[in-house]
Amino acid sequence: SLSKNSKHFNEGIEFKSHIDGSKHLFTPKSVLDIQYTFKSDIMMILDDLVALPATKERIKISVDRTILWAKEAIEYHKKMQKQNIGLNQNIFGIIQGGTDYEERKRCALSLNEMEFDGLAIGGLSVGEENILMYETVENLNPFLDENRPRYLMGVGTPEDLVENVARGVDMFDCVMPTRNARNGTFFTSFGKFNIKKAEFINDHEPIDKTCQCYTCCNFSRAYLNHLFKAKELTFFRLASLHNLHYYLDLVKQMREAIQKNEFNKFRKDFYSKRLNNAI
After folding, report:
1. From 150's CA, which of 21, 29, 113, 136 has a CA 20 to 30 Å away?
2. Where are the alpha helices (DSSP H) in the chain?
3. Which positions of the chain have pLDDT values less than 70?
4. 206/150 Cα distance (integer angstroms)
5. Which CA distances in Å does 107 have to 59, 96, 112?
């Protein structure tokens, strides 16, 4: 999102601060040093992310750098562990390669040989069509260690979560629950809708009758409509609480369905509710 402020070199990424214009060079070692200080539960290594679409040449450079930096990072981490620094912190490698099958495979096989605690799939949901994201994730399966967590970075909609869990992904992160909340959009078991519409002015139902979050248990659509239009800060908190609860509950439901060997049924029901109960 701040790519205009950065320059990529083989040594690392130079970032120009949007606050004071100062320049900072991020290297495979320096980003880990920062995360050692943070005591991050999961540390992410430096990688070379490219927006899509991108040329085959640029994607190859991205993968070359990502593999090079991954080697530097894991070697440095092992060295620091010997000094008891970062001993209990997990470190994840990041697979790049755009939607190019061969480059993704090359990157995945290289990182799979390194001693990372988990592997992340980066460089998706950056401009490509959803179907290409799904295909890329699915194509990676044969090249990833099934005993290590798979983390899909920056994804995504509830549908994206369901489809990528079906393709073997374990972990996600995304701004979507809170960003959409700020814009008045709620995610629900029957789909999403925007609270600013006039139809909600006198609607005294909760956002989602099946939801047990603080917002749904205490406030109506009409009140939330009023808060949004009045630009009350309380709205952003209540909307964020609901959307985050929805996402966490969705992942919990998928986990339970997998444990019961009923994921295919869950997936079918997930889409059925959205088609039959949309506002």
Report:
1. 29
2. 28-38, 56-82, 101-112, 130-140, 158-165, 176-182, 214-218, 221-229, 233-259, 263-276
3. 1, 276-279
4. 35
5. 11, 6, 8
Q: What's residue 277's pLDDT?
A: 63
The C-alpha atoms of residue 191 and residue 208 are separated, in whole angstroms, by 10
Counting Cβ atoms within 10 Å, is residue 240 exposed (0-12), middle (13-18) or buried (19+)?
Answer: middle
Separation CA 127–CA 204 (nearest Å):
39
Is the CB of residue 192 less than 8 Å from the CB of residue 185? Answer: yes
Give the chain's radius of gyration (CA, Å).
21
Q: What is the pLDDT of residue 278?
A: 52
**Of 115, 132, 110, the residue nearest 123 (C-alpha):** 132
Q: Determine if the pTM surpasses 0.90.
A: yes
Neighbours of 178 (CB within 10 A): 15
Q: What is the DSSP letter of 20?
A: T
Dihedral of CA atoms 271, 149, 75, 9 in degrees, nearest 10, equals 0
What pLDDT, in 10s, does the model give residues 229-263? Answer: 999 999 999 999 999 999 999 999 999 999 999 99
**What pLDDT is recorded for position 163?**
97
CB 161: neighbour CB atoms within 10 A? Answer: 21
Residue 77 CA to residue 85 CA, distance in Å, equals 8
> Is the Cβ–Cβ distance between 16 and 63 less than 8 Å?
no
Residue whose structure tokens are 């986990």: 255
Q: How far apart are CA 186 and CA 209, in angstroms?
A: 13
First-to-last CA distance in the chain?
33
Contact 257, 224 (CB under 8 A): no
Question: In three state form, how does the secondary structure of 99-125 look?
Answer: CCHHHHHHHHHHHHCCCCCEEEECCCC
Task: List b or e across 198-230, with b for residues whose CB sees 16 or more CB atoms inside 10 angstroms.
Answer: eebeebeebbbeebebebbeebbbebbbebbee
